[in-house]
Amino acid sequence: MLGELEELFLTEGFVEFTLDDLAARLHCSKSTLYTLAASKEQLAVKVVTHFFKGAAERIEQRIDGIDDASKIIEVYLAGVADELKRASERFMTDVAEFEPARATYRMNSQAAAGRIRSFIAKGVADGVFRDVHATLIAELATLLVEGIQTGVVRSRTGVSDADAFSALAELLLGGIQRREASP
């Protein structure tokens, strides 16, 4: 049932639904929904958390076994973009406007920023990336992730969160890749 709710919310958002609406759409009783959460708001948070937790697990599976930091960043951020492509604009707006859901997205984004930070440090240590100030680059990437998560990037550019994460990958990898010397 949680998976069905996730697909429904990703497609249509969640703010406008009542528990009666959800019960009718899922062909179940409201009491069945109450077994998942005590209120519509708690149900929304549970479903949003389920989405982000599942997304994080799928992204981690994608990078499992990759050792090259450049490839890890590329695959990791492509995974983030792919997961967010599943979410409609309505869902992302509902998340942004509902503080408990926004807090879940924020926590997930902070975890993603931490992972990116570790990938950059690994790449510098392994000699895959130029000798950059890894902490500074990672902090700048973190600020961009926060800008995406808070909706600032979306509101200023009209670009989806998925496309913003793809652009972040291009920016990061284009800026820190070790370049071969010209002949």
UniProtKB/TrEMBL annotation:
GO molecular function: DNA-binding transcription factor activity; transcription cis-regulatory region binding
Record Pfam families: TetR_N
SUPFAM superfamilies given in the database record: Homeodomain-like, Tetracyclin repressor-like, C-terminal domain
Superkingdom of source: Bacteria
Keywords: DNA-binding, Transcription, Transcription regulation
Domain HTH tetR-type: 6-44
Protein name, UniProt field: TetR/AcrR family transcriptional regulator
Native species: Prauserella cavernicola
